[in-house]
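Let us work through a complete example step by step.
Step 1: write down the sequence.
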Amino acid sequence: MDVTSDLFRGVRARGSLFGSSTLSAPWSLHFVDGAPLTLCTVLTGAGWIVPEGHPPERLGAHDTIVVRGPTTFTFVDEPGSTAEPIICGEDCATPEQGGTRHRLGWHDPGEEGGDDSGATTLVVGAYPVRGEISRRLMEALPVVLRVDCGGTGDPVLDHLAAEVARDEPGQQVVLDRLLDWMLVCTLRTWLDRPGGRPPAWWTAQKDPVVGQALRLLHGEPAAPWTVGELARRTGVSRSTLAKRFADLLGEPPLAYLTRWRMTLAADLLVEQGSSTVAHVARAVGYSDPFAFSVAFKRIRGANPSEFRRLAETR
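Step 2: predict the structure and record it as tokens.
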């Protein structure tokens, strides 16, 4: 398991959170939910994304924008469009609301009486982001990020376009997974962009020593790791590992491990409401619940029971 795969665990497209619209000018779709992450990509044609409080962004075919909530946005044929805005939320289910193509008899391209020449096809995936694990991913992203066509996501969009144009059993599952794939490709491209300033965890993964140490820690977070054992498994001395790890991530390996364990524990405390604190402690590598509680409060600011109560209240 690598860092990025772990951070993506709580980010998944699901059913009604997918939408596809084939539009003829003028149009104005106002997406009001402010989902934690919303991916917008144009399969054919062009239009403009207008995020609240941010300048408009033109999208051509295979261009993609990701908007981080709670910012809302509008998709229009052109800035200042004369179209009456249509309010779109995650429950949109009809063509008039920007909903998924195959619900309630939406017209398909090529269908008798339809003319899609010059139309713009927009695909939107709204992502709920659950838990503390994915918070580090969200914190690394700006409110609006853009990736132009021509990147690694283009083949995914070809598959997406083909799947949107058909109506077969299991289609929604395929579309959801394609959107997940597209989101990963988009964020990879953005994080690797020339002149960018990616987060330390992204850069560190590519270091041959620190990247291997991170894979070990994320693959077996409950193991009784020591710096010596990590150094042995990565093939370097303890001093070399400790220095390179601190240089790239700003903290020693075991301090990083403790923070990661507490992140995992925070999600377990919320997701597994019937689990005892002792059970959660063992799951993240602590045989002593008291030692776990002390570490958890130091990192998270509340003891495990208090954290669980606060999370349930929220």
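Step 3: interpret the result. The two ends are 30 Å apart (CA to CA).
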